[in-house]
Amino acid sequence: MSKVSKIAVLTSGGDAPGMNPCIRAVVRTAMYNNVKMVGVRQGYKGLIEDDIYDMDSRSVSNILNLGGTILKTARCAEFRTPEGMETAYNNLKKRGVDALVVIGGDGTFTGALRFSKQYPDMAIMGVPGTIDNDLFGSDFTLGFDTATNTVVDALDKIRDTADAHDRLFFIEVMGRDAGCIALRAGISCGAEAIMLPEKDTAIADLIASVKSNQAKKSSSIVIVAEGDKNGGAYDVAQKVKAEVKSYDVKVTILGHLQRGGSPSAFDRVLGSRLGFSAVNALIQGETQKMVGLRGNKIELTKIEQALTHQFKLEDDLMLMSDILSI
Ligand code: ATP
User: Fold this and answer.
1) CA 277 to CA 209: how far, in whole Å?
2) Catalytic entry in 15, 51, 132, 267
3) Pairing of strands 36-40, 248-253
4) What is the pTM of this model?
C-alpha cells in the first residue's frame, strides 16, 4: 500500500529547462498510482501564500516542449523563518498533503531539508533542477544540457563574426561556483581558453596564450565562467587588452538567455525519469532524499549528502580542453 495519499509539487530557485517534463511525470505517475496531486505556484512563496491548486493528467498536457516552469518559480526569504515554515505546513496539511516534491537547486534542497526536519510527517523528495550541474548525487541536473546547447549555439555564431574580423572575444557564461557549462561549451566550440571557478588561471598565462594564438589563428574565443577568480569577462578583457593592443577585443555576456528555451531531448527524458522516480520513491516510503542519475541509473542520495558540494569537474575534460585548443 502507498505510504502517501496526496503529493504537492513545486519548482523553486532559478528556472531550468526540463522542469516542465518533470512536473508532467510527477503528476502522471501519481495519477497512475491513485495518489492525488496539487501544484504549488512560485515555489515556497506559493506554499506560504496558499497558492496551491488541484492537478490531474490534463493539467500537464502539451508542456514537454516548454521552457521555464508552468508552476512559476520564486525566491522566498520568509520560508527561512520558523513562522514561514509553519504557515507553509498548515497550508499543506489542511489539504491533506503528506508528501512534497521539490524541483530546484541547493538552496531549494536546504529549505526542504529544514522543513522536513521540522515536520517529519511531511515526506520530501528532491529533484535536481538547476542549469549549474553542481549537485552531488546526479551526473546531470535538469536544464544543464539545454543551457549548454544554447551556449554552444551562441558561440558558433560569435565564432563566425570573430573570424570575419580577426577578433578576440571574451564570452561570459553562467556558473558562479561550477564551471560545467563553460567547460563543455568550450570543448564543443574549440574555445582557445576556458576560465573556470575550479581552476586558477593566471592572467600572465592567458596573455601568453592569446599572443601565441594570434600568430596562428584569425580569431580567439575565451570563455569566462561568472565565478572565475579574475572577475567577469569585462575585467579579464580589460587586463588582457592592455597587453595585446593589435587585437580587436570584444566582450559578450550571454546572461539570462542561457536559462530559456525548449528543453533538449536529453532534458525531457531526464525530467521524465527523475519525476517518475521521485513519486515512486515517495510511494515506497522514502523521504529527505534526492533522485539523481548516476552512471545512467536512477539513484537516491540523502539530501544532506547532495548538499556537500563534492561535485568535481571531470579531470579528462579539464586536461583535454587545453590540449585540443593548441
Ligand atoms: P539555483 O541553483 O538555480 O540558484 P536554488 O534552489 O539554489 O536554485 P536559491 O534561491 O538558493 O535557489 O533557493 C531557493 C529558495 O529556497 C530560497 O528563495 C528560499 O526560499 C529557500 N531556501 C534557501 N536556503 C534556505 C534555508 N537555509 N532555509 C530555508 N529555506 C531556504
Assistant:
1) 47
2) 132
3) unpaired
4) 0.95
68 lines ligand 1 (CB under 6 A): no
Return the SS3 of 235: helix
For the Cβ of 44 lying below 6 angstroms from any atom of ligand 1, the answer is: yes
* The Cα angle at residue 124 between residues 123 and 129, in degrees rounded to 5: 165
Distance CA 288, CA 311 (A): 19
pLDDT, average across residues 52-80: 97
Radius of gyration, CA atoms only, the chain: 22
Question: Domains in the chain, start-ordered, CATH in brackets?
Answer: 6-143+263-308 (3.40.50.450), 145-259 (3.40.50.460)
Confidence of residue 1 (pLDDT cuts 50, 70, 90): low
**pLDDT over 80 (residue 326):** no
**Region 203-213 average pLDDT:** 89
C-alpha cell at 92: 499543506
The strand ranges marked E within 149-288 are 167-173, 193-195, 220-225, 248-253
